[in-house]
Model the fold of this input.
Amino acid sequence: MSAPVTSPLTSFTQRSAPHVLALFRVVVGLLFACHGAASLFGVLGGAMGTGATVPAGSWPGWYAAVIQLAGGVLVLLGLGTRSAAFISSGSMAYAYFSAHQGTALWPIQNGGEASAMYCWAFLLIVFLGPGAWSLDRLFFGARQKEQATTAQPEPSVA
Done:
């Protein structure tokens, strides 16, 4: 049997995937951290664009903002990436179902698009990991490479 022929585009995208994943993680983490900073410190337009902050200790807003800031920074840096992304994803699932889903079925109708997108983006990071550039890889690189190679599915023979 001969090996499957891959196109130059396929080869390029396969080589670039870990770097693109890292860029995706950085952007998602930065944007998520900005939401938390806005709510906690009143910067970047403040909580929900009001210029105000969320009262300390208020449920669920203040706790969500802490998760957004801490989770966003950790995901941005790629430190404890999978755990931070898992908690962030769960936070956004909770936000969607508790604050948005009750008003209408679809996110476009109920204002929950950001919550839904962050939930799924973080869940993707949980499963794919931090990508090429991360503090996780810097500190735990050898162990992660070993786990990644054992987690790869066996190639199928056609």
